[in-house]
Every structure is written in C-alpha cells, then in structure tokens.
Amino acid sequence: MAKKSKKIVRREYTAADVKELRAHSKARTPVAKIAKAMKRTEASLRQKAMALSMPLGHRR
C-alpha cells in the first residue's frame, strides 16, 4: 500500500507571528529553532522574512 502524504494546511501569518519573527531575527536565532518554536517550515519562515525585507539565517 502506498504511503499517504500529509495534507498541506496553510496558515496565515498574524501580526503576533510577524512580531515574533522580527524578535527572532533581531536576536539572531537559528532558523531551525525558530521553525520549531513557531511550528512552521524553515522555507516558510525564510520566504516571509524575505517578503518583509528582514535578515534571517545564513549568519556564519
């Protein structure tokens, strides 16, 4: 039997989510930790950060 794939459930970013993302960006939190805390994918967080013109990740 084929493996069932998860159904994609899209959640809008609320004002509180954006505020939290800005705080993490300023604190330079690793993207993996932010993803776990906000229960979103790393790609989703990177896309939102890019849309808001804020730096996120790639800090070595």
Provide structural commentary:
The longest helix has 13 residues, at 15-27. The protein has helices at residues 15-27, 31-38, 42-51. The radius of gyration is 13 Å and the shape is elongated. It is mainly alpha-helical. It is 52% helix and 0% strand. It contains three helices and no strands. The protein has a domain at 20-60.
Largest sheet: none
Strand content: under 5%
Task: Give the beta-strand count.
Answer: 0
Q: Measure the end-to-end span.
A: 44 Å
Multimeric state of these chains? single chain
Structural class: mainly alpha
pLDDT average, as an integer?
90
Spans where pLDDT lies below 50 across 5 or more residues: none
Number of helices, counting only DSSP H or I runs of 4 residues or more: 3
* SSE series: HHH
What is the approximate shape?
elongated
Protein name: Transposase
Give the SSE map.
Elements: H1 15-27, H2 31-38, H3 42-51
Short description:
It comes from Bradyrhizobium japonicum. The termini are far apart.
Keywords:
60 residues; 3 helices; mainly alpha; Transposase
